[in-house]
Amino acid sequence: MQPLDVHRQEAGSHTLFTGLPLEPIYTLATDVPQAWLVRPRQAPHDLDNIQLYTIPPKDRADGIHAIFGLDYLVIEGHARDTLTSTPPRGLQLQLTTKSSTVIADTQVVANLGYLQFRAKPGVFQLEIRPGRGREVFTMESVGNSGWNSPSVEEVGSEITLTSFDGLTLYPRMARIPGMEKEDILPPPDAEDAPSGPSIVDRVSSW
Q1: Alpha carbon of 146 to those of 31, 86, 115, 168, 182: distances in Å?
Q2: Distance from CA of residue 118 to its chain's centroid?
Q3: Number of domain units in the chain
Q4: Which of 29, 52, 63, 149 could pair covalently with 145 via S-S, beta carbons 3.0-4.6 A apart?
Q5: Is residue 58 part of a domain?
Q6: Is the pLDDT of residue 205 over 70?
Q7: CB 198: neighbour CB atoms within 10 A?
Q8: What is the pLDDT of residues 159-175, one digit of tens each?
Q9: Where are the alpha helices (H) located in 86-167, listed in sequence order?
Q10: Residue 20: which domain range?
Q11: Please, which residues have CB within 8 angstroms of residue 69's CB and are 6 or more apart in sequence?
């Protein structure tokens, strides 16, 4: 088998590959920071399925061009229940502007209390969404300054997204007195349990 004669050249913000085989299916994607959410704005071809042999030789010689745009930055984090030091599974959070307009919302998952918003640079308020979550928890800290961030009473619930590196939050949730044993979602076993009588119960009744 003959080695492929593929060459790569860097020219400013452009990368040029020559000598590529025509048969494979290629993908043109971006290598960007994890906090960036980008998408193609202008692209004459399906960038996930580039088939060079279907492109006329003249167009192929000009190369595959695409313009990508940065749509959002990622705000992510890990929330915890200060009473149990476990994730407040199912807790819904939201980002609001100074005028109380909701711009994004998310739900805390059981895996490390992970949460994620997509937003543009700015100053926002991190809140618990109206509903069951506000019956069980209050926001003790938005976690804007790390794991041991100051409380909401000290610095408020404001978060700032000013870097292209995104933002990582570590919110702390305090339980409302009397709700120490309450959950927002039913236990996993209860979710998986059948709603009606089991097969054994039905057979026994026969």
Answers
A1: 27, 17, 15, 8, 27
A2: 7
A3: 2
A4: 149
A5: yes
A6: no
A7: 10
A8: 999 999 999 999 999 99
A9: 132-136, 152-155
A10: 7-71
A11: 38, 39, 40, 41
